[in-house]
């Protein structure tokens, strides 16, 4: 079966995207070298290179096609893209570089139009839940431009919703009770999307339109796709239940890790301000 995918060109690497990411990595390295005292081997640069590497693997490698073969694999991709990469990417921004960027007039004007983290979290949660509704999944499976645009919007919102945990500006980070309340709100708002997979699996399950499209392109009967491409429990009710719990677990893990980062930096900032 995987030989068919290779022959049909389904498993491909996005080389233009790779070139773009290499360019971004070079620019980041230049800025870090000339504007900070941070070494490339330090934590923040490593976070940056790891995050853009994960982005490329998630959306620009053959794993993109593989993730569409089942709901659980797809939710691993989505969870990494929106719960793991955004906080890591923001953590990679050195504070002094961020302060320099903020001074640009166009950045200052655009910042006034950005959503607050809570609003971004609410909008993200609604759009994330809607993404997995059967009729929208079918639309996304048929039009790659709409699908990619929707995922880009979710990614931008996810960057903003993680801001209170990992912002390079110490004054913008939540702490104490405020941080705990925001973490609880995040968990509550994203819970419906997780439960949707679990409850729908227990009722009657959901068809995977991405898999249907792939098998149609390869002229494979859709009735046999779950066995010929991936064996059980993939593309069964158990697969959808796993998808819900995978998303819950990865989101909780991201909350725990992100809420503990940069705390020492903030304490240092408070002491200097005092």
Describe the structure.
With 274 residues, this protein is mainly α. It has one domain (2-264). The chain has helices at residues 2-8, 15-35, 43-59, 63-67, 71-91, 95-102, 105-111, 117-131, 134-142, 144-161, 163-166, 176-203, 209-217, 225-228, 237-260, 263-273. The longest helix is centred in the C-terminal third of the chain and has 28 residues, at 176-203. The protein is globular. The relative contact order is 0.12. Residues 4-9, 215-227 and 267-274 have low confidence and may be disordered.
Describe what is shown at a glance.
The chain is mainly α.
List keywords for this structure.
274 residues; mainly alpha; globular; disordered C terminus
Count the beta strands. Answer: 0
Q: Work out the helicity level.
A: over 70%
* Rg estimate, integer Å: 20 Å
Please identify the structural class as seen in this structure: mainly alpha
Shape designation? globular
Largest sheet data? none
Tell me the fraction of residues in β-strands, as a range.
under 5%
User: What is the string of SSEs from the N terminus onward?
Assistant: HHHHHHHHHHHHHHHH
**What count of structural domains?**
1
Ends: how far apart? Answer: 65 Å
Number of helices: 16
Low-confidence parts: 4-9, 215-227, 267-274
Residue-averaged pLDDT = 79
What is the topology?
Layout lengths: L1 H7 L6 H21 L7 H17 L3 H5 L3 H21 L3 H8 L2 H7 L5 H15 L2 H9 L1 H18 L1 H4 L9 H28 L5 H9 L7 H4 L8 H24 L2 H11 L1
Helix pairs in contact: 2-3, 3-5, 5-10, 5-15, 8-10, 8-12, 9-10, 12-15
């Amino acid at each position: 079966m995987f030989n068919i995918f290779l022959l049909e060109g389904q498993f491909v690497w996005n080389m233009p995207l790779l070139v773009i990411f290499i360019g971004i990595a070079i620019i980041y390295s230049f800025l870090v070298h000339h504007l900070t005292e941070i070494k490339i081997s330090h934590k923040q640069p490593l976070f940056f290179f790891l995050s853009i590497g994960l982005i490329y693997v998630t959306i620009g490698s053959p794993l993109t096609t593989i993730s569409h073969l089942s709901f659980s694999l797809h939710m691993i991709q989505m969870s990494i893209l929106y719960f793991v990469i955004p906080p890591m990417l923001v953590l990679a921004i050195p504070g002094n570089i961020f302060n320099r960027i903020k001074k640009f007039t166009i950045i200052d004007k655009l910042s006034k139009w950005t959503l607050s983290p809570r609003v971004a979290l609410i909008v993200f949660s609604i759009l994330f839940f809607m993404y997995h509704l059967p009729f929208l999944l079918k639309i996304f499976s048929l039009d790659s431009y709409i699908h990619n645009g929707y995922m880009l919007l979710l990614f931008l919102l996810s960057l903003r919703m993680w801001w209170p945990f990992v912002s390079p500006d110490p004054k913008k980070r939540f702490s104490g009770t405020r941080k705990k309340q925001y973490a609880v709100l995040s968990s509550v708002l994203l819970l419906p999307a997780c439960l949707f997979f679990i409850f729908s699996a227990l009722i009657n399950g959901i068809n995977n339109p991405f898999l249907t499209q792939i098998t149609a392109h390869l002229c494979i009967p859709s009735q046999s796709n779950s066995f010929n491409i991936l064996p059980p429990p993939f593309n069964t009710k158990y697969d959808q239940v796993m998808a819900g719990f995978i998303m819950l677990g990865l989101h909780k893990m991201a909350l725990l890790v992100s809420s503990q980062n940069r705390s020492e930096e903030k304490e240092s900032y408070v002491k200097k301000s005092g």
